[in-house]
Amino acid sequence: MTKHMIEAGKPATKLRSEAVEVLLERGLIHQCTDIEALDARLAEGPLTAYAGFDATAASLHVGHLMPLMTMRWLQKLGHRPIVVLGGGTSQIGDPSFRKDARPLLEERQIAANIATIRRSVERLVDMEGADGALLVDNAEWLTEFKFLEFLRDYGSQFTVNRMMTFDSVKSRLDAQMPLTVLEFCYMMLQAVDFLELAKRHDCALQVGGSDQWGNIVNGVELGRRDGRKLHGLTVPLLTTASGSKMGKTAAGAVWLHPEHLSPFGFWQFWRNTADADVARFLRLFTELPIREVERLAALKGAELNEAKKILATQVTTIVHGPEDARMALEQGDALFSGEGELSEPTHQMPLKALADGLGLLEVVVHTGFAASNGEARRLVEGGGVRINNQIVDDPRRRIATGDLAANDRLALAVGKRRKALIGFV
């Protein structure tokens, strides 16, 4: 099977389905196993599609918004989404494009992670009604397999030769890093997920990140051997106009769950979008009509800041709800006008980090005010960073417990308009 790459935003033939048209228009399709066949199937009537997320952390992050927005659009256009929370696959961990193995998690930690992830997912897709989205845990079927039974039924369906052609495997081997049999089997488990969902829920489409291409193709091919016509679609890698991977900092990710990043901290992340990224992010992460997106994208200079506020408020509404988005906008307006101060933490860091020697540069990067330690260093040396309203110009400065207020908070500001209140817990 060869991947059908999307060129110039259009497949080779005239579109038949509104779903493919919308997803292309929004920039949400990177690869598809056969886009003409998928387009024809979507035009026939409602289709069930799934996206899976392993519970390797207590929250999803903005990188996960791409497949989730794809599922959200599919649902709006009459199709049914399934969100798979990987209670089974999380016990192994996806090795795709990683240089080393993921740390193995205990089942108790996986269950706790799933509980918090579930709350975020339930905001992003509609769970109500007979045709509402389904949330399932792949532990439901994966933990039922016996080892010899699994090898007999599925081991013969995959060849090592084929699996080693996928970039996710080749990248690890080319780097001469070990790849355990446990990790190597992960793609088999994800393929079995797709087949099980096809059998249980008539699921015909898997949506995933571009790093999931090999795993998705395995599932499509396994379905074909079972006599099923399945489809795979990947979303683009989430990068900024500068080419850097978006949404992660040296200290962690831009989380979707409010316990890990406050709604205002989330709003502020989007408000600080680079000018060159505004148009693309409005297409990807909002549901504004394309004409409105184009109007906002055409704004220049100071007017573009209004587009950034709209972007931030729209995304925060989708992820956290309209009330939190409204409050974040009001707080942002006050802060960016220089007339307000933060009252609730926008970011969280572990209190024990202070004992380990927490550097100022690390804190600046953690808040998203700098993309790297080098950029943070330049901000500090330029006198643009303040701790508790005091300018700090020493990049070697360490944060100590004495810098915190009585409630274990630290006020950080970069320039006049970017402010964060960090809670240490």
Provide mean pLDDT, rounded. 87
CATH architectural type of the largest domain: 3-Layer(aba) Sandwich
Helix content: 40-55%
Distance between the termini: 50 Å
- Which term fits the overall shape? globular
Query: Mind describing the biggest β-sheet?
Result: 7 strands, mixed
Tell me the radius of gyration: 23 Å
- Report the CATH superfamily of the largest domain: HUPs
Q: What's the CATH topology label of the largest domain? A: Rossmann fold
Number of domains: 3
- The class by helix and strand makeup works out as alpha/beta
Number of strands: 16
Give the amount of beta strand, in percent: 5-15%
Assigned CATH class of the largest domain: Alpha Beta
Motif ('HIGH' region): 55-64
Subunit structure: Homodimer.
Family: Belongs to the class-I aminoacyl-tRNA synthetase family. TyrS type 1 subfamily.
Binding site for ATP: 248
Task: Report what the structure shows.
This protein has three domains: 232 residues, HUPs (Rossmann fold), CATH 3.40.50.620; 101 residues, Tyrosyl-Transfer RNA Synthetase; 85 residues, Structural Genomics Hypothetical 15.5 Kd Protein In mrcA-pckA Intergenic Region, Chain A (Roll), CATH 3.10.290.10. It is built from 19 helices and 16 strands. The strands form four sheets. A seven-stranded mixed sheet has the order 1-2-7-6-3-4-5, with helices on both faces. α4 links the parallel β4 and β5. It is globular, with a radius of gyration of 23 Å. It starts with a strand and ends with a strand. Pfam families: S4, tRNA-synt_1b.
